[in-house]
Amino acid sequence: GWRSDVAEDVLLTWDMLQRGWRVGFAEDACCFVIVPSDVKSFLRQRLRHARMTLRALREMPTELVKRKSMLFVVWHLLFPWTDLAFTLAFVPGVILSVAYSSNLLMGPLALTLLPAALLMNVAIFFVMRSMFHANGLKIRRNVGGLIVYTFGYSLLLQPARVAGYLMGLMRPRSRKA
Fold it and tell me: What is the pLDDT of residues 24-47, one digit of tens each?
């Protein structure tokens, strides 16, 4: 049931649901992935992922809206907007603040996003810690890594995803035979 052009798990999941297959969620599942080792490959991966997210939203089966999976759909609809807000408010605010050594340049929207990003990452940490504990795994203490991940990763991720969304919007839809 896997289309040869599928590069996104969302499309695969929606194909399965359209065929009437049952798809479940395992909140305690643990998966480790190999990520790109250099920034260029990482950015290319994020651009592709953003383009595929738009494609998945364009190809969303209408019957998904009628199912209990609506939360999943809404969650994916929020990605482009949060990425755009972060890219247009937070990233320029950080750059201006560092360049001119002034916290006043961060702006109210950027300062609003900061606690939201921190809260989201803290929530993810506690969920992951619980899941790791249940599987007998240990999270190493790395406060510096958490800070770099929370802020540095986002400074690369969100602008790359916004660029990917724009690329996805500019490319014509592929025609199905």
Answer: 777 677 777 788 889 899 899 888
- 8-state DSSP, 49: H
Q: Are 90 and 152 in contact (CB under 8 A)?
A: no
Q: Name the nearest CA neighbour of 53 among 177, 158, 137, 176.
A: 158
Q: 50: which 2 tokens?
A: 């953003």
Q: What is the DSSP code string of 81-148?
A: HHHHHIIIIIHHHHHHHHHHT-GGGG-HHHHHHHHHHHHHHHHHHHHHHHHHHHTT--PPP-HHHHHI
The whole model's pTM is what?
A: 0.67
The answer to whether the beta carbons of residues 49 and 162 sit under 8 Å apart is no
Rounded to whole angstroms, how far apart are CA atoms 127 and 124?
A: 5
